[in-house]
Design brief:
The complex is a heterodimer of chains A (about 375) and B (about 170).
Chain A (H helix, E strand, L loop, with lengths): L20 H8 L5 H5 L30 H36 L8 H37 L9 E8 L2 E6 L9 E4 L1 E5 L4 E7 L4 E4 L6 E4 L5 E5 L5 E7 L11 E7 L1 H12 L8 H12 L2 H4 L1 E2 L4 E2 L14 E2 L4 E2 L2 H9 L1 H4 L12 H11 L4
Parallel strand pairs in A: 1-5, 4-10
Antiparallel strand pairs in A: 1-2, 2-3, 5-8, 6-7, 6-9, 9-10, 11-12, 13-14
Chain B lengths: L1 H17 L45 H13 L3 H4 L21 H10 L14 H14 L25
Helix pairs in contact in B: 2-5, 4-5
Classes of the chains: A alpha+beta (about 375), B mainly alpha (about 170).
């Protein structure tokens, strides 16, 4: 299975890295139908045009398909527990069945001290083996926890990323910018270079969330008022889906994110692109759309680098068209889905802070024309 | 025995009848976010006689969900930047009995929606109307006009100590 998450060179151009749309949806848990996902003729989803092309979505969001050193250790521990439990189960079942079979025969009570001694020795041996096994499991669990908790502490290549949980999406910041104004803020996707230990600083803006990317690591809670640290590392390029693992309100189930692990060169390319401001609108429709963005409620909550929009309540939109999904993994980022989301987001995600917007048809199409330039 | 069970049934029926489940609107419609005409909340007016204030009702009066949403929005839209947490600072206090522009829901709605002289910005058109009503309800809760049982006992602002530490 692990080979499926490798960069698939030579696969014909299709969905990212040649994964068919249906498979992508099934894996990503996207609630769009294939028909919608493909978009109308002439329209390609944003991520087919981005650097994502060539990466494959990990086929299964599972802790048993590890793609990094920590997940590998967790997977290893899981299998140790599994096989020991299998052995315990089999042995217990054998003794149980033996007792059932023997119980049918009438057995005379044995009054023999040698037999009592043998029985006593047998029972204490079994108890000792059980205690030793339990201690062994405890020790391996603690050892694994220690090993994955301190990965990369002394590694000079480490990268630091801030992840903030919101109801119901993820804010991702790369705090190493030279100027505060060129700090990269992304949403619902974490780009990381492979073979690099990444320190995630986890915080939340509202309630407790929990970050879980099964293919890379276990869970870690995001707790209001304190910063939790978390190391992850991916060794295989690919897209790994993660999600919130702590109930956080009505849309807890729709709070996903993608970890996009790529080679250091691709990552650097992506990062320098993200550091640039939003492209200037060119066509009259795009210019009108920008005005709609600034005068409609959009700019109150969303930020676009280089524009008079400084909102921090919603995701940063500076390069939002390069993201594969909308609404924290709920919809594919296509023009149609985007229009529906803007027109009536609460109908798609009840309880979201994003309000329904009453825009005329002209305003909506101008706004979409502008938003589509934000790659 | 029969009398007692009748009594029990009566109490149960009363309890069920008195159960009032609050409505939570998680899916505001597009009409909810339409920008309203400026409200008239005073009988005083310049020029020739016009129609008086329309009967405008706060849809969220006494609604605990709206109050807690308003409480979040109060932080998120940085109302606390000027009014702090109701005590006032740059803007006037909201927890005292002085209301320069009136304390009725329509007054507060208009203040948020249209803005007021000397610094209160206008939020109408920038945030949807149902959120202005949620803010209005929260501001009235701060002022003590909302039923105590509907107001969240927990504050949303950053605490100076950890939650688990004693006060």
């Amino acid at each position: 299975m692990r080979s499926a998450s490798r960069r698939s060179a030579g696969v014909p151009a299709g969905w990212p890295g040649g994964v068919p749309a249906a498979e992508w949806e099934a894996c990503a848990g996207l609630s769009v139908r294939r028909r919608d996902a493909a978009g109308p003729a002439g329209e390609t989803p944003a991520f087919r045009r981005t650097a994502l092309t060539g990466l494959t979505l990990a086929p299964i969001q599972s802790a048993l398909h590890s793609a990094g050193p920590q997940a590998a250790r967790i997977e290893h521990l899981w299998w140790v527990f599994f096989w020991i439990c299998v052995a315990v189960y089999v042995i217990t079942t054998i003794f149980f069945l033996a007792a059932v079979v023997r119980g049918r025969r009438r057995v005379e009570p044995i009054d023999n001290p040698a037999h009592d001694r043998r029985l006593g020795f047998f029972v204490s041996t079994c108890a000792a083996v059980t205690i030793l096994t339990l201690f062994g499991l405890l020790f391996s669990s603690v050892a694994t926890g220690n090993a994955i908790g301190t990965l990369g502490k002394n590694d000079p290549r480490q990268l630091e990323i801030e992840v903030t949980g919101h109801q119901w999406w993820w804010e991702v910041k790369y705090p190493d910018a030279l100027l505060p104004s060129s700090q990269i803020t992304d949403a619902n996707e974490i780009h990381i270079p492979i073979h690099t230990p990444v320190l995630l600083r986890l915080d939340t803006r509202d309630v407790i969330h929990s970050l879980w990317i099964p293919n890379l690591h276990g869970k870690r809670d995001l707790i209001p008022g304190r910063v939790n640290k978390f190391w992850i590392q991916a060794d295989t390029p690919g897209i790994y889906r993660g999600q919130c693992a702590e109930f956080c309100g009505y849309q807890h189930a729709h709070m996903a994110l993608m970890v996009i692990a790529d080679t250091p060169e691709e990552f650097a390319k992506w990062k320098s692109h993200m550091g640039e401001g939003a492209p200037t609108p060119m066509t009259p429709a795009q210019l009108r759309g920008q005005q709609v963005f600034l005068s409609a409620p959009c700019a109150k909550c969303h930020n676009i680098l280089g524009l008079d929009a400084y909102g921090t309540l919603g995701p940063d939109l500076t390069h939002f068209r390069s993201r594969p999904t909308l609404a924290a993994g709920q919809l594919l980022n296509t023009r149609g889905n985007l229009a529906g989301w803007i027109a009536n987001a609460p109908a798609i995600k009840p309880g979201t802070l994003m309000p329904p917007n009453q825009l005329s048809g002209q305003e909506m199409s101008d706004l979409l024309a502008y938003l589509e330039t934000l790659k | 025995m029969r009398r007692r069970s009748r009594g029990l049934i009566a109490i149960l029926a009363l309890a069920i009848l008195c159960c009032h489940r609050e409505r939570r609107s998680l899916t505001p419609t597009a009409a909810d976010s339409e920008r309203p005409m400026p409200l008239r909340v005073s009988g005083l007016q310049p020029g020739p006689k016009q129609l008086g204030a329309t009967g405008i009702n706060n849809p969220y009066e006494g609604n605990a969900y709206a109050i807690s949403q308003g409480q979040q929005l109060f932080e998120q839209y940085n109302c606390s930047g000027c009014h702090f947490h109701g005590g006032g600072g740059i803007g006037p206090a909201l927890m005292d009995s002085e209301w320069i522009y009136g304390s009725s829901p329509a007054n507060i709605f208009t203040t948020i929606s249209e803005g007021r002289p000397n610094g209160m910005p206008s939020y109408g058109g920038h945030i949807p109307v149902y959120q202005i009503w949620q803010l209005t309800t929260y501001v009235r809760a701060v002022g003590g006009f909302e039923p105590q049982g509907a107001v969240s006992p927990r504050s949303d602002e950053m605490m100076s100590r950890r939650a688990e530490e004693p006060k």
